[in-house]
Amino acid sequence: MAANKQGFTLIELLVAMTISMVLALMTYGGFQQVQTISRAAAESADHLSELQMAMRRIEQDVLQSVPRPVRDPVGDSKRPAFFGDMSQQYRLELSRGGWSNPLGHARSTQERIAYFLEEDQLIRRHWLVMDATLSVVPLDTVVLRGVRQFEIRFMDGSRKWTSQWPPLDSAGPAGLRSRPLAVEITLDVDGFGRLERMLEVRG
Predict the structure, then answer these.
(1) Considering only CA atoms, which of 44, 77, 96 is closest in space to residue 202?
(2) pTM
(3) Residue 116 Cα to chain centre, angstroms
(4) Per DSSP, what are the bridge partners of residue 116?
(5) Domain 59-200 in CATH: superfamily?
(6) Distance CA 62, CA 183 (A)
(7) What is the pLDDT of residues 19-77, one digit of tens each?
């Protein structure tokens, strides 16, 4: 008596192939989702790192500010050592010391820098000389992207906040050299919302 041999029917094979395809698609979809999440996490980490570096850069500039006015590029007048005005292009402009010079170039260790917002980018501008003329081309560095708002205010000697520095009642050489007691930086950044940081100004 011959043995009863059974195999897979065509329908069973089709069902098995369909199940295999569904499982493969589910696996591929899960892999794609993991990749998407991984990319989003990496981008978020990069943005956070950029934000931290930007805040550290501003903090270093403010803490190393010096009471050194500079010549106005378009005339013989002086610009204050420490300047800020929400109605002007430069929300923050100051003279700072501690500009490292590892190659020993013939230049000052002091530096004139400014921060301003251009579209959604926070830009740090600096000049290679303190008393720059119109022929001196400044150098710009994008320190933070995705910035919706950049605000700054200053604490005066009576510990009151003002949106302009030097204060309107400051005049003469003392006003040009004056610096606030503290600076409050407010940034509204994509993915992080509204961030505030208060920096004490040395000396």
Answers:
(1) 96
(2) 0.74
(3) 11
(4) 123
(5) GSPII I/J protein-like (3.10.610.10)
(6) 8
(7) 777 777 777 766 666 566 566 555 667 778 888 899 999 999 999 999 999 998 887 78
CB 165 within 8 A of CB 134: no
Which is it for strands 111-118 and 70-71: parallel, antiparallel or unpaired? unpaired
pLDDT at 7 over 60: no
Measured CA distances, 57 to 15, 119, 177 (Å): 63, 20, 22
Report yes or no: 179 and 67 within 8 Å, Cβ to Cβ.
yes
The secondary structure of the chain as a DSSP string is ---------HHHHHHHHHHHHHHHHHHHHHHHHHHHHHHHHHHHHHHHHHHHHHHHHHHHHHHTB-S--EE-TTSS-EE-SEEEETTSS-SEEEEE-----TT--SS-S-EEEEEEEETTEEEEEEESSSS--TTSPPEEEEEEESEEEEEEEEE-TTS-EESEES-TT--HHHHHH---SEEEEEEEETTTEEEEEEEEPP-
Residue 7: C-alpha distances to residues 1, 4, 11, 20, 169 (Å):
19, 10, 12, 19, 99
User: Mind listing the pLDDT tens digit for each residue in 79-108?
Assistant: 999 999 988 889 999 999 876 665 566 567
Q: What is the distance between the alpha carbons of residues 63 and 96, in angstroms, rounded to a whole number?
A: 8
Residue 69, number of CB atoms within 10 A of its CB? 20
